[in-house]
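the two lines:
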Amino acid sequence: MRAVRLHEIDRERGPQNFRVEQVDDPQPQPGETLVKIARAAFNRRDVFISQGLYPGIQLPCIPGSDGVGTVAAHGEGARGPAVGTRVVIDPTLGWGPDQRIWLRSAQVLGMPHQGTFAEYIAVPAGNVHPAPASLTDDEAAAIPLAGVTAYRALVSRGGCTKDDVVLIPGVGSGVQTFVLLFAKKIGAKVIVTSSSDEKLERAKSMGADVAINYKTSEKWEKEVAAVDGGPSLVVDSAGGDTFFKAVNVTRYGGRVVVYGGTLGDAKLRPFSLFWKQLDILGTSMGSPRDFAEMLALFDPSTGSGHVIKPAVDKVYAMDEVVAAAESVDKGAQFGKVLLAVT
Amino acid sequence: MRAVRLHEIDRERGPQNFRVEQVDDPQPQPGETLVKIARAAFNRRDVFISQGLYPGIQLPCIPGSDGVGTVAAHGEGARGPAVGTRVVIDPTLGWGPDQRIWLRSAQVLGMPHQGTFAEYIAVPAGNVHPAPASLTDDEAAAIPLAGVTAYRALVSRGGCTKDDVVLIPGVGSGVQTFVLLFAKKIGAKVIVTSSSDEKLERAKSMGADVAINYKTSEKWEKEVAAVDGGPSLVVDSAGGDTFFKAVNVTRYGGRVVVYGGTLGDAKLRPFSLFWKQLDILGTSMGSPRDFAEMLALFDPSTGSGHVIKPAVDKVYAMDEVVAAAESVDKGAQFGKVLLAVT
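prediction for all of em together
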């Protein structure tokens, strides 16, 4: 089969290390399902691996955590959707029995386990779910890792309800666009910020109630605090000064969920935390239960009735994998960057 | 009646501003119970008020949040323990219906509402609870504000169970000694730290399993991390560098509860928070439910069977109020500083 592989990794060349090659087809082991991939999607994780910025890298590897395709075969004893079913793959392997935290041995698909940037992939049958009927292959492929991360952050950890005012700083990344979609599906009010008016406009078209440009609006946190007394729930992946300001504007009894820290260390003022009795909640990836609950949100008949469609930035051919990875590295995209595998 | 009053406040003189005077007896209003105070206890809040380091100070005032005594009379329609019953007073007024957060209008007894440093006090009947039969007046008077703060931090917010390993940095303050007592009552394993070997010895005599001197043991966080893989629950009131190190040693899926920040702003590393999926939970004071559940822990028949006795540092006569306040200001005490009112 054709697959994207990394043989070398380094900070300098990064995305240019990806190459398309011919490799042996995987065989489904007992309990596994073989999926023929139609579309795969990029996550920053794939780019970090190409740059050597990820722990425990094993080479060569086939990256990719997100994929949609059809069931091609089942290994011995594997129970899952019938051959030919259109499916999405849960990218978390071996989460374990505790909803609160994964086992230390848990993995994300795509290094060391073979990833989705390949024509075929064999995964545990339990990781294979029928794709939401309301979505195209492109839309469904955009879901897995970003979707489950967003769902766990917003709902399982953040406890979002229709009564919340949700602040999403830095809308535009794959995860943050899913946070926006899910919050609107649940019926919450949503405030987004970005440095790009174009991204703010797209966020508004996806349902954002208030959109603030933090570059041109110097005191963005004052504008945020003025919306219904400020957010009751923040979902942040920036850290740094953004986190500090977000904590300041969060309402009494509010929650601040953190799944990343691109701006690095943050200052935390204990008084803001204890006086307002805030919850600051860390999260990463999601459990099998999170994944199943998240997929259910794409059923048009649930929640607020909003029909939600994942944001797709662009679909690249498999041979354009370097260009696709470079666009993710630049971070200028809105929504997910896809790879057309077959 | 005789009462301690503040007419002036300033950073310099602080505790020396307290004086004992003759004032009119309070009269119980409809719904209120009049309590004849036997013992009152100091909190840092009382000293902060004398130093002008508290928001919204109204003068003159009678400070004091903690008191034990006997029911002297009931106002019209007040339902509470019968006249003559030995009672402790819940110091939180007007918490409101939400367990998660108090109403913005909630107050703590002792400025602006008359406090417990007086022979009589009238409070809402619902704030008056029978004193635990297993405790002396001195022990019971030590409970209210520190006890409810500790209970909410450890149990209502921290969710402490017998399976937890609890880290209590800086044991010695009123609240931290209650956290220690309650954690042992629940059956958890407890690690305490202090800069004083004397305080560590007292903590061990109260049940602490591991005691570490953070002054003489340079890498105290390494010693903490070595205990059963590190704490699953931290209750911190320091902030600053202590908070940062405590977050570093907390186990995957653990909780860090914060009710103070004497060392000021802390650094928070987003990666530690999201990768370990920590909960960082702010808390202050406690709800009426917290107070009632906390008192029940003093029933010797509950929990691990540990008989718990609040730590009393010293009992001062009412006329020695300045010396008592100065000792709280120095922070050298272990457990509560009391005032013998009648």
